[in-house]
Specification:
Distance between the termini: 87 Å
CATH superfamily of one domain: P-loop containing nucleotide triphosphate hydrolases
Low-confidence stretches: 1-18, 48-146
Strand order of the largest sheet: 8-9-10-7-11-12
Number of helices: 23
Strand content: 15-25%
Mean pLDDT: 80
Number of strands: 21
Length: about 675
């Protein structure tokens, strides 16, 4: 009997393999019985035995009704071409942990990353498509892309403690090309701001950097939230200190030796040696360092002693950031680190990170942070990385000059093509060749949209106060008072930014003005006819997810074309106009909420972290629009560029006195005050 026949007979006669044969049979035919196909295989193996001297003599078994054929040395084919290159000479093997794409003359293997918890006693189940359709190769590849979506290739890499160089790399995600034939260069002691439009591949690229580095290079990638085991009861201080492997191992070793010494298992000399090594590490200094970092990121002494599992996502991100700053990795990768930091924590963090001596890459939409921290800006342009020396403001100056030259070059090219076509001397083939060889890079315009707040409707005696607080107090209980006898007035020219520690009452004050909550004492007087525009970081809660942007905004303007014009002005893609709001991205939802503000024509704007969920381009446009707004503004923000551009007056909400300090001279003075604490 041939090896092929022995293999087939083995699977047919071995009861342990019967379930496996059933699975293959089911995937090939919905109508044939198992006995019929077994009989055909036995018949085929018998034919091979009779024809062993003529290996090229083949016989196809065809089931006309199911259009399924078994070919002895070519391929096993279904209508959907799910299984190809079947080789009866070889056994179909499933290893316990690995399966990869089937290849001729190779074993069927499942990769560790794709399949886990394999159980030999259970059947291998292929989930059927609707209407019992067999999955095509395209559908299978699509599912594999969803599991492992990144395709990262490069010509050459050089990675040391001092630099990273990746030559001629390309990166695609789920079939979408993000970068093509470009280079990445990073140097020791440099701090890189990584910018580009939403969806251009910033986060996807920095996720590849750890895979480039050897084990001797410590790389930390800090996302926007720390995933923790909810059963953990260690404190932020213990968690951060425990992340230092060397210190942790020494402490564990001393504890173990102390127990052994108490049990007379070792002499005192060995314990003393381990304790001396631990003391020389100076754990007290390490502890002081961690406490300083946690304090800087907003943790007070009480919070430092609480278990990590009680903290919200934003505070867990701060714990993760504290861990990274303490460990001082060779390469630190930060993805939107300011999203969950208040202004005070950002001021401290900017100062701390400016002295970073190793390689730092930060993805951020916070313009003030990029200006304070970065030595270089990496911008994504036409699927290439372009590096500019200096901070964000310097990048914009250089980029705008570059853009002007590109526009001139492109306009010159278009003029030449128009003249060539007009002359009639060139064939279509000649024109195609010329355009293919000479077409320049089409420049990408920045800030090619606007947010234009309409002038508010006139009100009587507009120079008087729009809002007046008279001895206003608020608290959720007698023991939890947030504001105590606060008095002030706001008018059409007010530009106020509320600053202060978390829990000092900033958001509470805005909610009192908007009418969302009522004071427990005192009086709030709003001028008749005044309309407020209120936008906070939880704006999504104000949007109806079951309506489209057009349907939602028609509640304010009935003319559909007028609504579409506003949505177009703020650059919301036309395809998104008639999608349900619940299906839109965070940035698209933010633009819908912004259009609502424009349409309402408010006299006074109330903003609570308005730059959250906005890309850097939209942040710039928002700042420009607020500079020309003809009304009053009261805001809370961690974007220092917005504070400085609007020339706002800072009101400090004092958490201890429950009062407001109206005498902060400038933003720079406030930064000094924070850093002195």
């Amino acid at each position: 009997m041939s090896k092929k026949s022995k293999a087939n007979k083995k699977y047919l006669e071995n009861d342990d393999n019967d379930d496996f044969v059933n699975d293959i049979i089911k995937s090939l035919s919905n109508d044939k019985s198992k006995d019929d196909i077994k009989a055909e295989i036995r018949k085929e193996t018998g034919n091979n035995k009779n024809n062993k001297n003529n290996k090229n003599n083949k016989k196809d078994l065809v089931n006309k009704e199911n259009k399924t054929k078994l070919v002895t040395e070519k391929e096993l084919v279904t209508e959907k071409e799910l299984v190809t290159d079947y080789k009866p000479k070889e056994e179909l093997v499933i290893e316990k942990e690995l399966v990869t794409d089937y290849k001729p003359k190779e074993e069927l293997v499942i990769e560790k990353e794709l399949v886990t918890d394999y159980k030999p006693k259970e059947e291998l189940v292929i989930e059927k498509e609707p209407e019992n359709k067999i999955q095509t190769k395209f559908q299978i590849n699509k599912k594999l892309d969803e599991i492992n979506p990144y395709n990262f290739n490069y010509e050459k890499k050089t990675v040391t403690l001092d630099s990273i160089s990746v030559r001629n790399f390309s990166l695609s995600v789920g079939g979408k090309n993000l970068f093509e034939d470009t280079d990445l260069q990073l140097g020791y002691g440099q701090r890189y701001g990584f910018i580009g439009k939403n969806g251009s591949g910033k986060t996807s690229l920095i996720k590849q950097i750890p895979s480039l580095c050897d084990d001797n290079i410590l790389v930390l990638y800090i996302e926007q939230e720390l995933i923790l085991d909810e059963s953990r009861v260690d404190t932020p201080l213990e968690y951060v200190l425990g992340s230092n492997d060397k210190l942790s191992l020494m402490q564990q070793n001393v504890e173990k030796l102390r127990i052994m010494f108490d049990n007379d298992e070792i002499d005192h000399e060995k314990l003393a040696e381990a304790e001396s090594e631990l003391l020389s590490y100076n754990t007290d200094l390490e502890k002081v360092k961690v406490i300083q970092i946690l304090n800087g990121l907003g943790f007070d002494d009480k919070m430092i002693k609480q278990p990590v599992n009680i903290f919200s996502g934003g505070w867990r991100m701060r714990i993760s950031l504290a861990r990274a700053l303490y460990l001082e990795p060779d390469i630190l990768l930060l993805d939107e680190p300011t999203n969950h930091l208040d202004l005070e924590a950002i001021i401290w963090f900017e100062t701390y990170i400016k002295s970073w001596k190793k390689i730092l890459i930060v993805v951020s939409h916070n313009i003030g942070f990029l200006n304070e921290v970065c030595t270089h800006i990496i911008n994504i342009e036409n699927k290439k990385l372009c590096t500019y020396k200096g901070n964000y403001s310097r990048f914009k100056l250089t980029y705008n000059k570059k853009l002007e030259n590109q526009i001139k070059e492109y306009e010159k090219y278009e003029k030449t093509v128009k003249q060539m076509k007009k002359s009639g001397k060139y064939s279509k083939k000649d024109m195609d060749e010329y355009e293919k060889k000479h077409v320049p890079y089409r420049p990408e315009m920045y800030n090619n949209f606007s947010i234009n707040f309409l002038e508010p409707l006139a009100v009587r005696n507009s120079s008087s106060n729009y809002i007046r607080f008279e001895n206003v107090s608020f608290g959720y209980s007698d023991k939890n008072k947030i504001l105590d006898k606060v008095s002030f007035g706001l008018d059409s020219e007010s530009r106020i930014c509320l600053v202060g520690l978390n829990g000092s009452g900033k958001s509470t004050l805005i909610k009192l003005i908007s009418g969302e909550i009522q004071p427990t004492e005192g009086e709030i007087i709003i001028k008749e006819g005044i309309k407020f525009g209120y936008y906070n970081q939880h704006f999504e809660q104000q949007l109806p997810f079951n309506k489209t942007p057009v349907e939602f905004l028609q509640d304010y303007i009935s003319d559909m074309q007028e609504v579409r014009k506003y949505l177009g002005t703020i650059k919301l893609e036309g395809t998104a106009h008639n999608k349900k709001i619940g299906e839109l991205s965070g940035g698209q939802k933010a633009r819908v909420a912004m259009v609502k503000l424009i349409i309402e024509r408010p006299h006074f704007l109330l903003f609570d972290e308005p730059t959250n969920h906005l890309d850097i381009e939209t942040v710039e446009v928002l700042i420009e629009s607020l500079e020309s707004f003809k009304g009053g503004i009261l805001l809370i923000t961690h974007e220092s560029e917005l504070i400085n551009s609007l020339d706002t007056q800072l009101w400090y909400m004092n958490k201890h006195t429950k009062k407001i300090d109206y005498n902060i001279e400038s933003f720079d003075k406030y930064c000094e005050m924070i850093l002195e604490k």
